[in-house]
Write a structure and sequence with these properties.
The complex is a heterodimer of chains A (325) and B (539).
Chain A: H1 2-36, H2 42-49, H3 66-104, H4 112-133, H5 141-159, H6 173-206, H7 212-215, H8 223-256, H9 264-284, H10 290-314
Chain B: H1 22-34, H2 37-56, H3 64-73, H4 77-83, H5 93-122, E1 137-142, H6 149-158, E2 162-166, E3 169-174, H7 177-202, E4 204-211, E5 218-219, E6 227-230, E7 243-253, E8 259-269, E9 275-280, E10 286-287, E11 292-307, E12 313-317, E13 321-322, E14 330-336, E15 353-361, E16 382-390, H8 407-411, E17 415-424, E18 428-430, E19 436-452, H9 456-475, E20 479-485, E21 499-506, H10 513-525, H11 528-538
Antiparallel strand pairs in B: 1-21, 2-3, 3-20, 4-6, 4-19, 5-7, 7-8, 8-9, 10-11, 11-12, 11-19, 13-14, 14-15, 15-16, 16-17, 18-19, 20-21
Helix pairs in contact in B: 2-5, 5-7, 7-9
Classes of the chains: A mainly alpha (325), B alpha+beta (539).
Bound molecules: protoporphyrin IX containing FE.
Pfam families (chain A): Cytochrom_C_asm
Transmembrane segments (chain A): 12-29, 77-95, 115-132, 139-155, 175-201, 229-252, 267-285, 292-315
GO biological process, one term (chain A): cytochrome complex assembly
Chain lengths: 325, 539
């Protein structure tokens, strides 16, 4: 069962990788079109067709326009394939998690490897939900699959450990409550950072910046929508994260005799919480620019990463269950 | 999200210009600054940044040994960091200053909002603006089912809007929960802080190691703890007088050596004289009412019997502290300061004291080196000891650790090494002077933390409110709608039937408002109850 899980995860990574390549193809073809079709009126037409049902693209009249719209069609096809592959990858990913859980006879959140595996799955699943509701955001898939491939490959190469049951300190129903909510909130925050970065790039592009990182945003959806999505995801994840931290404190009271002891993990959870609260405040304050607020959200995610990787690798504390040495 | 700064500005000062006291003006300005959202943001950030050293540097409250080690490793830097409070970040002046300022700002921010909110809750939804078609949402309903203001108000009330009818106008507002939630949330933050304060003033805790057996029982007094701290409002005499005996400690391990379960069984002597047996474990502390007992760790205490050269024997059960290795290798010292008292003279010979220093291995390897246990369970228990004879230095009045030999006495030659040996259970070691040491077996020990933490219930309650408030604040949406029924005599083209104009204003920007408005308009157009009546009228 454990070997099966490993295989499924490997296939999931491959599927994310191919999805990423497919997104990149979509992006490249889209660029080619954007360049050649600058003056062509077909541009608007095709642009409007993206994401619409049926893909009714008028056969272009002038031969000069054949190339652009054909590559646009190809780009769209590549994008659809990418989305389909992402869904396939997520299914494999889930199967990998389930088999790992069955092999261990418990929820697959017992060490850092499993933790990363679950968080990334939540991120991917939430992405599919977003994509379902707002197909026009498909271009963001390039960033998302990139994040997936990087995190999962890192987990495979550096964090993988053999399946083991839980140690006594983790045998508590609070384990389920605390960890599932932390994992869930982290997955949504992980997804939230994708539109946040995309927004920062796109806002720069819309303000006329044409230097390197901003050029990436040429074909991204509009900045305002990205910003709203960023906020929606963070506003959704924040109360869950808050609950998870509180549940952690209740558990810590039972397990370690104190609800809050400023152990490094607790300290960084506090820091993340304060930074995300700062994001929500900044966004609610009209005098704070939206891109400043969004930077705070990105910073919040960096503090989450610090808590996951930094604290497990560099500090020792009571939360030393990561299975890394 | 609402814009935050949308509280109605203070009415323009009408009073004739007076010379304002500059001190008062400064105070007022500082207060305004402090309670502004920008300041709150800056303070939030300072709080996050200030917490970082608390995770990077060792903290006294978390791990005092590591702080000491840091002083050894960085003799130059450590004292300077210490002056800055870097080893007690969360109790330091600067950290406290930040959160106290933040909470002052918070109170200053929340109180006026509370006043405004109570006013808003009491007041009626405002009258309709003149031009409803200028609002973000607007519709004209021809011959709606609910055509008079009261019928429209009924539709709205059914959908839980707060409604006010003024003549031919209906005003309605919804989503007060947002601000209520926001205020609850921020107020509960203050309650959490209060809970922390109560806990640190009136709480206490003590740690100690408890070896199994009645002779090792301990009672809850300050002297019986190896480490204890009482809040400023707690006196030693306030500690509830209960006693604990560790009857048994059961630890189970997986074949890999990973612990599978722990269970401590204790006898509790309650202050009222009653006695009972109770069990507890990691994750399920012993709750005594007056305090909680938490299981922190466990290990083994070898029982060693020393028979001196005069044939007098003493037995000592010495907890060997685990070294952090998962196979529970223990380290310890068995000291016999009263050994070798000449029975004829009854005089103690200070240079004839004996001590054994070494390791305890619950599962010793079959072959040397005997330096680490192979498994946490006692499969092949053995002690590996070095014997010392001489002056243990216990009379020098220098407090030493009971778990370590006084190294100075070894260095200055007053304590001499006289051999070393590995002993299995039941084995006896005869020393050069004919005295013997016998390893009789072991007893388990548990390390316990006993704590009383008032304020936790308050904090828990506050956290529940905090979460509820947060949800209300994040997902609540304030919005207003107005309906205006055109007077029948306005010469409408439909003759007798009426014309209703509707407008909607989302006070919290949110994408779903257009849909909600459309549904509302549809409901008014064919009012669920009114619709039935209308159809009857046609037939
Ligand atoms: C301990 C410090 C604080 C924390 C952890 C905190 C946390 C939060 C959080 C998480 C929210 C999000 C809820 C929402 O967006 O609706 C929020 C909202 C808000 N906070 Fe704070 N807050 C703190 C201090 C303050 C202070 C000092 C002020 C006033 C200067 C303030 C004013 C507000 C306001 C007005 C909102 C509502 C924003 C809106 O309308 O959506 N907060 N706070």
């Amino acid at each position: 069962m454990s070997a099966l899980s490993d295989q499924l995860v490997t296939f999931a990574i491959l599927a994310y990788l191919v999805a990423m390549i497919s997104h990149a193809v979509e992006y490249a073809l889209g660029n080619a079109r954007a360049v050649t079709a600058k003056a062509a009126p077909a541009r608007e037409l095709v642009g409007a067709g993206v994401g619409a049902a049926g893909g009714i693209v008028e056969p272009p009249a002038a031969p000069a326009e054949i190339r652009p719209s054909r590559s646009a069609e190809r780009a769209r096809l590549a994008g659809r394939i990418a989305a389909g592959l992402t869904a396939l990858a997520a299914v494999l990913h889930l199967a990998g998690l389930v088999t790992r859980g069955v092999a261990a006879g418990r929820m697959p959140w017992g060490n850092m490897y499993e933790f990363v595996l679950t968080v990334t799955f939540i991120g991917a699943a939430a992405w599919l939900v977003v994509l379902w509701k707002r197909p026009s955001l498909r271009q963001l898939g390039l960033f998302l699959t990139l994040v997936m491939v990087l995190l999962l490959a890192f987990a495979e190469l550096k964090l993988k450990v053999a399946v083991e049951p839980l140690m006594p300190a983790l045998q508590s129903y609070w384990f389920l409550i605390h960890v599932s909510t932390i994992v869930f909130a982290s997955g949504i925050f992980l997804l939230g950072v994708v539109p946040a970065v995309a927004y920062l790039l796109r806002a720069g592009w819309e303000q006329g910046r044409r230097s390197f990182p901003y050029t990436l945003a040429r074909r991204l959806p509009g900045a305002a929508g990205l910003e709203r999505l960023t906020f929606t995801l963070h506003a959704f994840a924040f109360p869950i994260f808050t609950f998870a931290v509180i549940a952690g404190a209740i558990w810590a009271e039972a397990a370690w005799g104190r609800a809050w002891g400023w152990d490094p993990k607790e300290t960084w959870a506090f820091i993340s919480w304060v930074v995300y609260a700062g994001y929500l405040h900044a966004r609610a304050t009209p005098s704070v620019k939206r891109n400043v607020a969004t930077w705070i959200a990105v910073l919040g995610f960096l503090t989450m990463l610090m808590n996951l990787f930094g604290v497990n690798f560099f500090f020792t504390g009571l939360h030393s269950y990561a299975g890394v040495n | 999200m609402t814009t935050v700064d949308d509280r109605p500005a203070a009415p323009p000062a009408e009073a004739p210009r007076r010379r304002v006291n500059p001190v008062l003006a400064l105070l007022r300005n500082s207060w305004r600054q402090l309670t502004s959202m920008r300041t709150a943001l800056v303070l939030l950030f300072l709080l996050a940044v200030a917490a970082i050293p608390g995770s990077v540097l060792p903290q006294r409250g978390v791990n005092p040994e590591k702080v000491n080690q840091y002083f050894v490793d960085h003799p130059d830097l450590a004292p300077r960091l210490n002056q800055l409070g870097m080893f007690e970040v969360f109790g330091s002046v600067w950290f406290s200053a930040i959160y106290l300022l933040l909470f002052t700002s918070l109170v200053g921010c929340v109180l006026p909002r509370m006043r405004d909110h109570v006013r808003a809750l009491r007041s009626r939804p405002p009258a309709a603006p003149k031009r409803l078609d200028r609002l973000p949402q607007h519709a004209v309903l021809e011959a709606p089912a609910a055509a008079d203001p009261e019928a429209i108000a009924a539709v709205l009330r059914r959908r839980r809007w707060r409604v006010e009818v003024r003549g031919n106008e209906v005003s309605a507002e919804k989503g007060y929960l947002k601000e209520t939630g926001n205020l609850l949330f921020h107020t509960s933050l203050v309650a959490v802080l209060l809970g922390v304060a109560v806990g640190s003033w009136y709480g206490w805790h003590g740690n100690r190691l408890l070896v199994a057996g009645e002779e090792n029982a301990f009672c809850n007094t300050r002297q019986q703890y190896s480490e204890a701290s009482l809040g400023p409002r707690v006196d030693s005499a306030d500690l509830p007088p209960f006693c604990l005996t560790l009857d048994d400690f059961d630890a189970k391990f997986l074949p890999s050596g990973q612990p599978a379960s722990f269970w401590a069984t204790v006898t509790v002597d309650e202050p009222d004289g009653s006695k009972r047996t109770a069990g507890f474990s990691v994750n399920s502390p012993l709750r005594l009412g007056s305090a909680n007992v938490y299981l922190l760790g466990h290990g083994y205490a070898p029982i060693l019997k020393y028979t001196d050269r005069y044939g007098r024997s003493q037995t000592s059960t010495v907890p060997f502290l685990t070294t952090g290795d998962t196979n529970l290798t223990g380290e310890g010292v068995a000291a016999f300061p009263d050994a070798n008292v000449d029975p004829k003279t009854g005089k103690r010979a200070p240079d004839q004291q004996v001590a054994f220093d070494g390791l305890y291995l619950p599962t010793a390897p079959d072959n040397p080196p005997f330096v680490a246990s192979q498994f946490p369970e006692e499969r092949n228990p053995a002690v590996v000891l070095v014997a010392y004879r001489g002056n243990l230095g216990l009379d020098a009045g220098i407090p030493g650790s009971v778990y370590k030999l006084d190294q100075r006495q070894v260095d200055n030659g007053k304590l001499k090494q006289i051999g070393d040996k590995k002993l299995g259970v039941g084995e006896k070691w005869t020393l050069d002077d004919g005295s013997t040491l016998e390893f009789l077996g072991t007893k388990p020990y548990a390390t316990l933390s006993v704590r009383y933490a008032p304020g936790q219930t308050l904090m828990l309650g506050a956290c529940v409110v905090l979460l509820a408030g947060l949800m209300g604040s994040l997902f609540g949406r304030r919005r207003r709608v107005w309906f205006r029924v055109a007077p029948p005599d306005s010469g409408s083209p439909t003759g007798g039937s009426s014309l209703v104009e509707a407008g909607g204003l989302p006070r919290t920007e949110h994408p779903g408002f257009a849909d909600e408005f459309a549904q509302l308009v549809a409901a008014v157009s064919d009012d669920e109850r009114g619709a039935g009546r209308a159809r009857e009228g046609v037939e």
